[in-house]
Each structure stands twice: as structure tokens, then as C-alpha cells.
Specification:
The protein is mainly alpha-helical. It has one domain: di-copper center containing domain from catechol oxidase (Orthogonal Bundle), CATH 1.10.1280. The strands form 3 sheets. It has a 3-stranded parallel β-sheet. The protein has a two-stranded antiparallel sheet with strand order 3-4. Strands 5-6 form a two-stranded antiparallel sheet. α6 runs antiparallel to α7 and α7 runs antiparallel to α8. It is globular and about 55 Å long. The termini are close together. It binds copper (II) ion. Copper (II) ion binds next to loops. The site of copper (II) ion (CU) has 4 residues, from loops. InterPro entries: Di-copper_centre_dom_sf, Tyrosinase/Hemocyanin, Tyrosinase_Cu-bd. Keywords: Copper, Metal-binding, Signal. This is Tyrosinase copper-binding domain-containing protein. One of its GO terms (molecular function) is metal ion binding. It holds the Pfam family Tyrosinase.
């Protein structure tokens, strides 16, 4: 890992002919850290900025009660509900779109006073026992499983501890449906799994994902374990008792701020894969939902949350607009 990081950093620095020789070159990348490797001070500052986003004014101005956090959910839902004919899942754009989305969220964290790097949750590491992950800590994490006893609008029980216990997301999918932040961890033994479907995103599963040598193959295989983290934490529609939680069968899944740590890990896995073969940083192939071959010039729509992006600007974490690496 150390060696590949070294190669990634210096390999990119040497690839000057394809990089603009501008003063904006990425010379001092931010190092993104795993949640438990960040200092407690950074974790607490991250959480208070994440709470601040749930209280910040909406940029979209679509609903009078919406906050900036609701905007993130609404944009994600719009691009997931066939409402726009634009897709960000099950297609090649999955990885660059979410990479850009994470950057927009990171900027919002900084605007809310957080000075540290974006953080991620190594759910592969925690897959044998996900409920014991420090990300659920009520003080230095995102709080635990839903445990509210009152009805929560037909959704899973409300989260009752941690910094988001009073957070009430506005949207469910792209519709207005206010509720308490809901989680419904898949229990141990269900579907023959460890808890939270951990067996579906284990190190062994991930080895299979990394055997893929084409972008299209890697993206397609990586999306499945990612889906199981969503479902494992949020609970699926069919998971019975208590109904679904925000991170599960809900296209407004950014309602649960852990979304951004989950996708930090997805982004890190893509970054790792990109370093494991020649030319992979520029590798972008496959077809979109209409069967059209994708291109690096394809647009990444942000629907007013931020400017639209272009795929080629989000391929390489060393590009000037991104300029980060992972520890
Ligand atoms: Cu998504």
C-alpha cells in the first residue's frame, strides 16, 4: 500500500505532458483518513459541521422547510428515481458522480467550520461485525441503530442517540415526507449473514471485485457490496419490522450523514483499483442506461446544488480540482 501510494503520487507528478502546467497543479494533496484514524478533535468537528449542514439554508429553494442536507438528498433522489432520465447508479457515472458529490459535501463541511480532511468508513474492515464499528459511537460517531418506540411515519425506528437524534429529514425518495432519521440494521442470522449483511461486503468479496481489469467490470462489481452496506444499515423494504430506514431502500439516502463516509470508502476503493494497472486513472468505459457508450466529456449533473461537472475532471484524485489522496 505504501509503495502504491508512492507510485500514485509521484507517477502523477511525472505525467506532466498530460497535465496542465498551471499554478493550480496539485502539489500538496489533502490526506483523507478512515474515521477511527482521525483525531477525536477532527471527528467531533466533522460531526458538528455535519449537524450544521442539517440546519443550513437550502440552495435549491424548492421547499420552504428544506435545509442544505435535504438538498443533497433531493438531488440524489432526482437522479435515482427516473424523474430526470439521468442515472447515477448501475451505470459508469456511478463512481465519478459520487466522487464529485462527496467534494460538494466536503466543501459544505468546510463552510460549516470543519478544517480537517474528508473521512471514510472502511466497511470492509468492519464487515465481520459491523455493529461494533466506531462510526456508530454516540459521542464520537453517528449514533446507533434506530430505537425510537413511537411511530415514525411508517419508516424504521428513529435514531435516538448521537448528534443526529433530532435530525428530521424532509424527503423520502423525491417526495416530501418528514420523519426522524431512521435506521433498521439487518439482524444477525438474517439471510444467513452476519449482522448488517456484512458477508456481502467482506474482504473476500472485495478480492473478487478487484480481479476486474476493465472499468465497466469493476464499477459493476463494486456497486453490489455498496448496495449491501446501504441495505445493511438502512434495512430494505422487505425487512419487515419497523419498515425501511433512510440509508436503505430510499433514493434520498444522503438523509443519513453516514452516507458520505460509506461513499468515501467506495471512492477510496476506486482510487486503489486505479493504481493497480497501467492507464486506469483515465479508464472510463461501458454504456449508460440508453446503451450509449460513455465518454470522458459526459456531464455530471448537480441540479443546482453545485455547478455541473465533467467526468474527466473527476477521474484522477490528483487533478487540480480534487487534489487529495487516501492514507
Ligand atoms: Cu448514490
Amino acid at each position: 500500500m505504501k509503495l502504491t501510494s508512492f507510485v500514485a503520487l509521484f507517477g502523477a507528478a511525472l505525467a506532466l505532458p498530460s497535465a496542465p502546467l498551471s499554478s493550480r497543479a496539485c502539489t500538496n494533496p489533502t490526506v483523507r483518513k478512515e474515521w477511527r484514524n482521525a483525531t477525536v478533535t477532527d471527528r467531533l468537528a466533522y460531526l458538528s459541521a455535519a449537524v450544521c449542514i442539517t440546519k443550513s439554508p437550502s440552495r435549491l429553494g424548492i421547499h420552504p422547510n428544506a435545509t442544505l442536507q435535504d438538498d443533497f438528498s433531493f438531488v440524489h433522489a432526482l437522479l435515482s428515481d427516473s424523474l430526470t432520465s439521468i442515472y447515477i447508479h448501475t451505470v459508469p457515472a456511478f463512481l465519478p458522480w459520487h466522487r464529485y458529490f462527496l467534494r460538494v459535501y466536503e466543501d459544505a463541511l468546510h463552510a460549516c467550520g470543519y478544517a480537517g480532511p474528508a473521512l471514510y468508513w472502511d466497511f470492509v474492515h468492519d464487515s465481520p461485525s459491523p455493529s461494533r464499528s466506531p462510526v456508530w459511537d454516540p459521542t464520537t460517531g453517528f449514533g446507533g441503530n434506530g430505537a425510537g418506540t413511537e411511530s415514525n411515519g411508517g419508516f424504521a425506528p428513529r435514531v435516538v442517540d448521537g448528534p443526529f437524534k433530532d435530525w428530521r429529514p424532509l424527503y423520502w425518495n423525491a417526495g416530501v415526507n418528514p420523519h426522524g432519521l431512521a435506521r433498521n440494521w439487518i439482524p444477525k442470522g438474517s439471510e444467513g449473514e452476519p449482522e448488517m449483511a456484512g458477508g456481502k461486503y467482506s474482504a473476500e468479496i472485495m478480492r473478487g471485485v478487484f480481479e476486474e481489469t476493465t472499468y465497466a467490470g469493476f464499477r459493476a462489481k463494486l456497486e453490489d457490496p455498496h448496495n449491501h452496506v446501504h441495505g445493511g444499515v438502512g434495512g430494505g423494504l422487505q425487512r419487515g419490522e419497523g419498515g425501511p430506514g433512510d440509508l436503505g431502500a430510499n433514493t434520498a439516502s444522503p438523509n443519513d450523514p453516514i452516507f458520505f463516509l460509506l461513499h468515501g470508502e467506495v471512492d477510496r476503493l476506486w482510487w486503489l483499483w486505479q493504481q493497480q494497472g497501467e492507464g486506469r486513472t483515465g479508464m472510463y468505459d461501458g454504456v449508460d442506461q440508453n446503451g450509449r457508450a460513455v465518454e470522458l466529456d459526459d456531464v455530471l449533473p448537480m441540479m443546482g446544488l453545485a455547478e455541473n461537472g465533467v467526468v474527466r475532471d473527476y477521474m484522477d484524485v490528483n487533478s487540480p480540482g480534487l487534489c487529495y489522496t487516501y492514507e
